[in-house]
Design brief:
There is one protein chain. With 127 residues, the protein is mainly beta. It has one domain: Metal Binding Protein, Guanine Nucleotide Exchange Factor, Chain A, CATH 2.170.150.70. The chain is 8% helix and 41% strand. The protein is built from two helices and ten strands; from the N terminus they run E-E-E-H-E-E-E-E-E-E-E-H. Strand 6 (56-59) and strand 7 form a beta hairpin.
Length: 127
């Protein structure tokens, strides 16, 4: 299925291809805990930025591998390149205009990221 999504002000819009039933991670790391990000990690070829390239601000920290993209108008992070899957895109399922019919939320211990990141590595691999 093709899902449309956006930031709050709709300056940044995108499409993502994902199944109607998805597993998403609810991470307890310092940034995800504060933002409420629910992780839908997909191969990069399943993601298309439609509008707003000039409205995106990038934030990095720690290793600098993760590229956190924020709308510079409303501040929402709708998607980013995750450190666990630098060849993929991580979509905040909460930023999709329509939700998948089934969302299975899996707790992910991001506070101990080094010990658990390998469990996500398969998510950005092409089907």
């Amino acid at each position: 299925m093709i899902y449309n999504g956006s930031c709050h002000c709709k300056a940044v819009t995108f499409q993502v291809e994902a199944p109607d039933k998805v597993d998403v991670e609810d991470c307890n790391c310092s940034i995800c805990l504060k933002t409420g990000f629910l992780h839908l990690i997909v191969p990069i070829n399943k993601f298309t930025l439609l509008t707003g390239k000039n409205h995106i601000t990038t934030y990095t920290y720690n290793t600098g591998v993760a590229q956190h993209y924020f709308c510079n108008t409303c501040g929402i992070k709708s998607f980013y390149i995750p450190r666990s899957n630098p060849d993929g895109m991580d979509i905040n399922v909460r930023c999709l205009d329509e939700q998948p019919s089934t969302i299975n939320i899996i707790k992910f211990d991001g506070q101990h990221w080094e010990g658990h990141a390998h469990t996500l590595a398969h998510k950005s691999k092409p089907d």
